[in-house]
Amino acid sequence: MARRRTSDPKILRLREHGCLHPHPEQVRDASFVSSEFFDARDLVQVKYEMLRRVQVEGQPVSRSAASFGFSRPTFYQAQGAFEAGGLPSLVPKKPGPRRAHKLSEEVIAFLEETLSQEGTLLAAELARRIKERFGRSVHPRSVERALARHKKKLQRPGPAST
What we know:
With 162 residues, the protein is mostly helical. The protein folds into two domains: 9-90, no CATH class; 105-155. Helices cover 55% and strands 0% of the residues. The chain has helices at 9-16, 30-34, 43-55, 61-67, 72-85, 105-118, 123-134, 140-155.
């Protein structure tokens, strides 16, 4: 299903921060249906209110999760995150890898050794050799970025000795 374009500034901000609820129509809680203050499109607000219904009002977990359009496991994930990190922990994390996981220190060392022995090679050739040696498909641009990060890391001054 294609995303519709909108000029609503709140939707744009929620989307920008990853807080736009993908299924606001599933929120059936009375407060969100009848109030202008509560906005089912705000994923953080929806999760917080779901947790509050259980913690403050004593609503059963299964009923609270269902009325906010979530499963019980999702409730417990949100509860654990909230207890560990407060309200900011309810903001969804960006999807995808957190680091260059294919280009480990071992792979970078291999690239450095290859470049020191053979001089300048194109990133596409280095990517081919990574595939050959480690069985990992890596885009040539990722190789370039990883080598640049490594070079920058080596150029950083160490802690000053006294």
